[in-house]
Fold each of these.
Amino acid sequence: MPSRAVAGLLASATGLVLLAGCGLPDHRQGPTGQGGPSASAEPSFTPKAPVPSGKPLGPDAHVPDPGAVDDSDPTAVSKAWAEMTYSYDTKYDTSPHDAGLRAVRWCSKRKADAERSYQSASGPGADWNTWARHRAWTTVTVSIELEDDSPKDGKKVAYRSLVVEGKAHGRDGWTGHGPRLTAYTKLVRSSAGEPWRVDDVIVVEAVAPPSPEEPSASAADPSAQ
């Protein structure tokens, strides 16, 4: 995805969030908005209980220690945020959101508040379940995706495209793939000289290879040979 499109994508995503609360008509109702003949008095789904938060980290937890981060450098801030956000320890974390909460120190107040109030009502996914079976932790390498058409840094706004490549390490000796994605980040600061903070993110997941314990389609189905 060209970097020129990053600013527009982030702006569009923010606009959609704002529109969701602007009193737009509910098209699940009838033409008059009062509910037509097909409207149901009962919800069409049953809400799930929120995923619980993880446990406090113990002395054997595997999470990164980024050390001192240069807050005046948007590249350094975005990379520190990504490294922390995608470094999980399933012995203590119950979902990726626990790692995201550890990264709010590099987020704007708006994004930090949103992260702290977020509650996932769905499971963490198949990859997470595989890691959790091995009580695995993930390590990531974060690199900057540079393109000639990248937006130039402004006094209060900057954009960075981050490529995240991860590995999973089980406490039982198993190894597998970790998070693999590109994160298009928007960073802001209140004025020149103030620290940069991640304010918005668009994530594009990469196609991950099968983990070592997942059979390929041909192995699972002899007819596919």
Amino acid sequence: MSRSPSPSPGRRNLLLAGGAIGATALLAGCSDDSGSRPDAAGARAGEERLRTRGARDSAALLARYDATADAHPKLADRLRPLREETARHLEAFRAPASAPASPSSASPSASASPSASAGATRVPDVPKDEKKALAALARAERHTADTRTAALRDAPPELARLLASIAACGAAHAYLLTSGNS
């Protein structure tokens, strides 16, 4: 049996050197290079934009929950806990960046009246069929969760945790809205 020749020392050294260069480049990308970071004011403005968008999206979801419950009163009890969580999400995004809101400390009815949540938000059209109305609400939850997930890359760590948590909650809402509706 013949064995294939092992790589020559030159080839082995070349591979090791290439790996070392790649590792060095990777570590350099992870280093604290303050020259490429935005200034503190720019970072705060970016965080504020993400919080504003999060609040706007939560307000739009609240308006959709309210419109769906108004169009289909039989669904109101089923939608209430999901709607209350969405109201807490809105308050979390509205909380000052330096003092994040605790989801358990926000009142479920805070900014939760139909007029308050729909104030600046257009009242969405709700399908006349209950299953289609729930499916439309689930699509809105999924879309908002996807938007929040995409925003993670631009968010500072604390806001990224909030966005990730609320995106996961929105995905769970979408599942709950469609489970048992086949």
